[in-house]
Structure formats: structure tokens, C-alpha cells
Amino acid sequence: MAARAVSHPEFHSVERIGWLRAAVLGANDGLLSTASLVAGVAAAQATTSDVLIAGFAGLLAGAMSMATGEFVSVSSQADTEKADLALERRELEEDPEGELEELTGFYEARGVSRQTAEAVARELTAADALGAHAREELGITDITTARPLQAALTSAVTFAVGAASPLIVVLASPTAMLLPAIVVSTLFFLAILGALGARAGGANAARGALRVTVWGALALAVTSAAGALFGAAV
């Protein structure tokens, strides 16, 4: 009795790479930059209201900056992809046989026999010539295609969510414990965020948590020291 093929869904981390990079970057940046900002202001002996104003301003400015930066950056990538696809479409129209030979060569280079490579190239060309060349020659697929708006919105929202965390801590902490509360909570949140980001990307959670926590501690130390120095000077 012949074995029956079993179809099962597979979920790969690379399928999330488009929005995952922007989400992790936005949340990390929102949490760390805002926490560092309010830690520096708090270290300068500012009032709780001053710390909140500075933090909220940092949240708004940072979210808009992240959205703008991601949109411009990913739009540039999308423009490059469109230009390359347009060039490939023109080459397919002007020299279809040459493009067929080129596609055949890609499969031969992977170890496929000439006869099989040519047969595959002809079938793929008949089905979707541009799509086949986009994948094999340009490395453009549905997974890697640039999505500027998605990247911009993801970065802005996750930045705001990350930035809100230290502001909530400021609201909930007594003035005398403001700075240590910001530092401890930020390192805790960074560790969680680093672990979640690594896990979502299929990497080691502990390594991801340690990486962002160490750099976060360094950023907090620098801004707190600067705040204390300027606060003493004033």
C-alpha cells in the first residue's frame, strides 16, 4: 500500500521578518530612549511633573521620528525593488531566450542536470517569468518585499508602547525612589523584551535578554550620570 502524503502547515521565523525587525527596534528604542531621558532628568533633581513632561515629549518625538525614518528607509528599498523589476521585465520582453538561458543556469549552478534545469525554467517562465527571475536573480519574494507603511506604523506603535512603560513607573513611584524605580523597571522590561524578540525570531531567549539588558544598563548609567552632573552644576 502506497504511503499517503501528509500535508501540514509550517511556520518559519523568516516569515515575520518584515514587521518583526521594526517591532523589536521600535519597542527597544521607545523603552530605552525614554527611560534614559527620564532617568537623566530625574537625576538632575527635577520634579515628577518635569520628568513626566520630558518623557511624554520624548515619546511623541520618538514615535514620529521612528515612523518617518522607517518609512523613508523602507521606501528607498521598495523603489530599488521596483526599478530592478522594471529592468527585468524589459529584459524579458527584449530577450526572452537569453533570460530563459539565464534562469536555466541558476538551477544548473545548484546541481540540477541541464535537462531538468531547462525543463523547470521553461515551466516557471510559462507560469510567471517575472516572478521566477525576481526570486532567483534578484532575491525578491513575498516574504522579503519592502512594505514602507507597515514598517512605519509598526515602529511608531511599538515605540509608543515601549516609551509608555517608564512613564507609568514615574507616575506610580514616590519622588524619593524615582531614579532607582526607573532603572530597575527598565532593565526588567528590557530583559523581557529582549527574550520575547529573540524567541519570536527563533533565537536564544537568554542571549537576547542579556544583550539588550547590558546595553540598556550602560545607556542608563551614562544619562543618569550626565543628569546628576548638570543638576549639581545648576
Q: How would you describe what is shown here?
A:
- The structure is a single chain.
- Helices cover 81% and strands 0% of the residues.
- It has 234 residues and is mainly α.
- The protein has one domain.
- Helix 2 packs across helix 3 and helix 6 (178-200) runs antiparallel to helix 7.
- Residues 1-6 and 10-15 have low confidence and may be disordered.
The number of domains: 1
Structural class category: mainly alpha
Helix tally equals 7
Question: Beta fraction of the residues?
Answer: under 5%
Mean pLDDT across the residues is 83
Could you tell me how far the N terminus lies from the C terminus, measured between alpha carbons in angstroms? 86 Å
What percent of residues adopt helix (DSSP H or I)? over 70%
Topology:
Blueprint: H1 17-43, H2 48-94, H3 96-109, H4 114-138, H5 148-172, H6 178-200, H7 205-233
Helix pairs in contact: 1-2, 1-5, 1-6, 1-7, 2-3, 2-4, 2-5, 3-4, 5-6, 6-7
Compact overview of the structure:
This protein is mostly helical and 234 residues long.
Based on the model shown, name its key terms:
234 residues; 81% helix; mainly alpha; 0% strand; disordered N terminus; elongated
